[in-house]
Description:
Helix content is 21%, strand content 29%. The protein is an alpha/beta fold and 447 residues long.
Amino acid sequence: xxxxxxxxxxxxxxxxxxxxxxxxxxxxxxxxxxxxxxxxxxxxxxxxxxxxxxxxxxxxxxxxxxxxxxxxxxxxxxxxxxxxxxxxxxxxxxxxxxxxxxxxxxxxxxxxxxxxxxxxxxxxxxxxxxxxxxxxxxxxxxxxxxxxxxxxxxxxxxxxxxxxxxxxxxxxxxxxxxxxxxxxxxxxxxxxxxxxxxxxxxxxxxxxxxxxxxxxxxxxxxxxxxxxxxxxxxxxxxxxxxxxxxxxxxxxxxxxxxxxxxxxxxxxxxxxxxxxxxxxxxxxxxxxxxxxxxxxxxxxxxxxxxxxxxxxxxxxxxxxxxxxxxxxxxxxxxxxxxxxxxxxxxxxxxxxxxxxxxxxxxxxxxxxxxxxxxxxxxxxxxxxxxxxxxxxxxxxxxxxxxxxxxxxxxxxxxxxxxxxxxxxxxxxxxxxxxxxxxxxxxxxxxx
Length: 447
Ligand code: UD1
Ligand code: CA
């Protein structure tokens, strides 16, 4: 165990009734991933020993999303939301025997920075609260600080007018020693204006035990919590603005930054060029020097150095583009690996395929990968030339250096170096076009 061992507890049991939604609040999307994904990413930045999510409303759906985003995280259920202190109490079984710091985050507060969390986690006090100077302190809990550090937190509902004038507010994020947490959390009662078990009472209880409590402050922007659709939309705008300026300062060219949409984990290398109206779903990496032309949608894919994509291309999960691959307009690629130098210029669907290096895929090519029940694979060997409008009925293999004639329906494997043609043979009828048109015109005049 490292000296800085931490466990992260994410509170996510709130109903989010002000969202006017059947979806649990923390599953609404921000930056292409559920809100809870932002808290999980923040947790991950601390390299914690364990992550525990407290779920309540829509708990099964939350558990499913968490399992997908962070398979090692544990879920505990809080059937009734009796307060933040009660929520943390539900994690005692999971935290049993843990020694180190417990960091409490909120599932609906996506912008706490990694530097802020690191400062909180490394602060030596027994209880450390993340505070901020609020422009409008509103209904936040107020931090009572003296020269001995943080004395206690007073919730708005319980505060007298003088306390309400304090601008230093509680963000909700807190770090404290696990043993102290176990000792004190069972003493938190609900004798207050809200009738709730307040996590914030731990500060006063710790001070009464002669323990040290302190405040780490951050920018108010970081503490933004999401309660309504309007706040979600504003948070999305803030997220995108930050992602765009980060991309620019990392050396990515954005032709029109305001029209490019990023996801939480979008990773773009220096000197990549991103055209107008490009949308990145989750799980995209674009290497240095690749170019994404306007109007592309990418998700769960990798674009290697020197590749060009679009305009109007769609890369779906599992699309792996090798270096100097060219994917042109109206091309869709799913779960397919395209080796170095492959060209897929126009109007093509490649799904569940493996395409060897320097193949040329003609316009209108389709991998017929789905028979209505199962998906099947298409293998295309290196340097093969797939003629325009080839239908590749999977499972099927086209050998290296093979060629398929335009309009061919490939239903059997093609050996290396072979030419495969499967289409009706053409016949020419001399003069028939002229005679046919003349008779059609004559019949129209006679009507
Ligand atoms: C809390 C703080 C307040 C702080 C504010 C910052 C307490 C008592 N008060 O107040 O000092 O200024 O956050 O936004 O902690 N939750 C549960 N289970 C519960 C109750 C809450 O999981 O039983 C979760 C919610 O889903 C939410 C978070 O805890 O993610 C905060 O709960 P909320 O009710 O919004 O706390 P506030 O009253 O706003
Ligand atoms: Ca709140």
